[in-house]
């Protein structure tokens, strides 16, 4: 979790988080499962301010996979917002979406990916796409701000039209590498 | 409280539970929890059966409860499974869904893999104390079958979230659930009224 409000960082001027929020609205997303991440802070805030969206803060990303399963079973669309490190927590649980043919769209902000300073983020960041694909999720990447919304749109469509887990990885280059004053 | 509770049988209690249900949803956790749900009420379209993903019965039920706020939703989970995902109790407490009831079958063992004791069994861990500590105030041990039924009736009639824990024996499930995840998903969604036949 980032202790610095994302809005205070110059790269946050790009409005893709606001347009991601609009995209979730367009697709009728009602349940937003979140494990907080700095890259998603603005989107989470927009969702929290929306009375029609039910934002569920989680203790671990595994719960988010379950929440998406339950939401779909109950007739609602959900999305899971998390950081790449959280993908590692989800892998076994994604078998739910594979076996039950459940749409599970995931929007993943990357760490350990581009200009990372924290060695601990690098192993999972390097493995994120490979492990998601190994378990059967469809993965698309967005590495430029203008690609984020179209890629997330494609992921959400893939998830709900083909009934499976699907992820957009939002590259660290888009979010801006955190340095905590180490640059 | 834990030591004063009678050791009961999961299949018996599951039968007592489903006998009180109308259109409530039930999410049966991995292993004997969902096997006995199937054994007690295979024809109920409002039952969902977990074939894997140990520990997720409660957060799946939470998703259903949020999607269908006017329907009561029960999660049936074993103590070993819940121990794998204790954080979900805080998630439930924070969301405070009035229509969610968690039933924990506590035999202190991983029954389906040979009855190995859980760490909690050796430590004397109290699931109800954990749930209350997590913020689910309406958490209770059922000291016998009559109290289990009374707690279920309270959960059906009033606002939750609820947690009902029952000490159970090491008996295997009465039957096994067929392992067809697409069938379970489709039938349950029909039961929830969100899929046409």
Structural description of this entry:
- The complex is a heterodimer of chains A (183) and B (197).
- Chain A is an alpha/beta fold.
- Chain A has a single domain, classed as Rossmann fold (3-Layer(aba) Sandwich).
- Helix content of chain A is 44%, strand content 19%.
- Chain A is built from eight helices and six strands.
- Chain A has a six-stranded parallel beta sheet, with helices on both faces.
- In chain A, helix 2 links the parallel strand 1 and strand 2.
- In chain A, helix 1 crosses helix 2, helix 1 packs parallel to helix 7 and helix 4 crosses helix 6.
- Chain A starts with 15 loop residues before the first helix and ends in an 8-residue tail after the last helix.
- By secondary structure, chain B is an alpha/beta fold.
- Chain B contains nine helices and eight strands.
- In chain B, the strands form two sheets. In chain B, strands 2-1-3-4-8-7 form a six-stranded parallel beta sheet, sandwiched between helices.
- In chain B, a hairpin with a 5-residue loop joins strand 5 and strand 6.
- The longest helix of chain B has 13 residues.
- The model of chain B has no long low-confidence stretch (mean pLDDT 96).
- Classes of the chains: A alpha/beta (183), B alpha/beta (197).
- Chains A and B meet through strand 2, helix 3 and helix 5 of A and helix 3, helix 5 and helix 9 of B.
> Largest chain interface and its two residue counts?
A-B, 32 and 35 residues
What separation lies between the terminal Cα atoms of chain B? 46 Å
The helix/strand order of chain B is HEHEHEHHEEEHHEHEH
- Low-confidence parts of chain A, pLDDT < 50 over ≥5 residues? 6-10
Question: What is the top-level CATH class of chain A?
Answer: Alpha Beta
Mean pLDDT over all positions of chain B: 96
Query: Over all CA atoms, what is the radius of gyration of chain A?
Result: 15 Å
Number of helical segments of chain B? 9
Mean pLDDT of chain A: 91
Q: Give the CATH superfamily of chain A.
A: Thiamin diphosphate (ThDP)-binding fold, Pyr/PP domains
Instruction: Give the spatial strand order of the biggest sheet of chain A.
Output: 2-1-3-4-6-5
* Largest β sheet strand count, sense and barrel closure of chain B: 6 strands, parallel
> What percentage of the residues of chain A does DSSP assign to strands (E)?
15-25%
Structural class of chain B: alpha/beta
What number of structural domains do the residues of chain A give? 1
């Amino acid at each position: 979790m980032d202790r610095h409000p994302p809005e205070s960082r110059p790269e946050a001027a790009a409005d893709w988080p606001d347009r991601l929020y609009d995209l979730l609205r367009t697709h009728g997303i009602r349940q937003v499962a979140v494990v907080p991440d700095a890259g998603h802070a603005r989107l989470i805030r927009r969702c929290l301010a929306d009375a029609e969206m039910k934002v569920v803060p989680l203790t671990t990303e595994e719960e988010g996979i379950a929440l998406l399963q339950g939401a779909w079973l109950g007739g609602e669309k959900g999305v899971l917002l998390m950081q790449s490190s959280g993908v590692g927590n989800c892998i076994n649980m994604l078998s739910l979406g594979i076996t039950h043919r459940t749409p599970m769209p995931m929007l993943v902000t990357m760490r350990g990916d581009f200009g990372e300073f924290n060695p601990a983020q690098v192993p999972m960041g390097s493995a994120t796409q490979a492990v998601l694909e190994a378990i059967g999720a469809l993965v698309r990447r967005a590495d430029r701000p203008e690609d984020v919304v179209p890629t997330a749109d494609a992921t959400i469509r893939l998830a709900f039209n083909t009934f499976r887990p699907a992820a957009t990885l939002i590259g660290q280059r888009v979010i801006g590498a955190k340095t905590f004053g180490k640059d | 409280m834990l030591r004063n509770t009678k050791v009961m049988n999961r299949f018996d209690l599951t039968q007592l539970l489903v006998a009180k249900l109308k259109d409530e949803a039930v999410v049966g956790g991995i292993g004997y929890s969902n096997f006995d749900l199937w054994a007690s009420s295979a024809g109920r379209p409002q039952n969902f059966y977990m074939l894997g993903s140990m520990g997720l019965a409660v957060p799946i039920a939470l998703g259903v409860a949020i999607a269908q706020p006017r329907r009561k939703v029960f999660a049936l989970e074993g103590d070993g499974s819940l121990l794998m995902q204790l954080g979900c109790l805080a998630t439930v407490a924070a969301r405070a869904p009035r229509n969610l009831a968690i039933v924990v079958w506590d035999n202190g063992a991983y029954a389906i893999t040979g009855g190995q004791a859980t760490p909690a069994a050796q430590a004397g861990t109290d699931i109800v104390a954990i749930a209350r500590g997590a913020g689910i105030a309406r958490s209770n041990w059922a000291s016998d079958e009559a109290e289990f039924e009374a707690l279920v009736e309270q959960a059906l009639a009033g606002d939750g979230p609820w947690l009902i824990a029952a000490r159970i024996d090491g008996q295997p499930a009465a039957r096994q659930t067929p392992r067809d995840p697409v069938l379970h998903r489709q039938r349950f969604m029909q039961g929830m009224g969100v899929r046409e036949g």
